Amino acid sequence: FPSRFPVTIGKLEWNKNPDQVQAVAFDEEKITRTTIDIRQKRIVQVQTFNHGIPFGNNVGLSSPDSNYFYALHQLQGEVEIYSFDIASGASNNLVQAEKATGILYNSVISRDGRFLYATIDNKIHRYELQGTQMRRLPPIELRIPEARYLTLSPHANILYVSHDRKNSVSQITLNPDNTY
Mean pLDDT, the chain, as a whole number? Predict the structure, then answer.
């Protein structure tokens, strides 16, 4: 649809408002999040801020309430997870960084914004989120190798994980307390 704002295309995510999606995009210097109202066919908001994250294999996710942004950065076998407070409007509010070892493929945030899941090598790394604070939880070990992409079911109680070169999908049932 026509827009008076330039749109940086990126990963699409649903907002808490069911009529809105967010396009989140990384480049070498900044993160751009564009909020689009689907029903009104217009751009509601464009936010751009410098991230200070080295260029590499980067994945960005917004919290469902749009107040926080999480960036996963992988370079030379290390994955760093950054959290930003963007609700305040200040740029580059890096609050916390966590590190994991391996190759990052994909990540997703639960619809309630409480958990972040990331496929790193053959494990699902899990983090409990409280705003910009992250608490690492034990990873989910998968029996099938080469975990790649993941998504949550509409009710967020099942995590689906695809496996490269195996033509298979793992299904992990999640309990409300994030045990499985």
Answer: 78
Query: What is the per-residue DSSP string for 92-110?
Result: --EEEEEEEES-EEEEEE-
Predicted TM-score (pTM) of this structure: 0.76
**Main-chain phi, psi angles of 157, to 5 degrees:** -105, -5
Q: Tokens in use for 57?
A: 């294999």
Give the length of the chain.
Answer: 180
pLDDT digits (tens, 9 = 90+) for 168-177: 899 999 987 7
Burial class (CB in 10 A: 0-12, 13-18, 19+), 40: exposed
CA-CA distance, 16 to 81, in Å (whole number)? Answer: 23
CB–CB of 117/125 below 8 Å? Answer: yes
Strand order in the sheet with 20-26: 11-14, 20-26, 30-37, 42-50
Could you tell me the two tokens for 100?
Answer: 């994991």
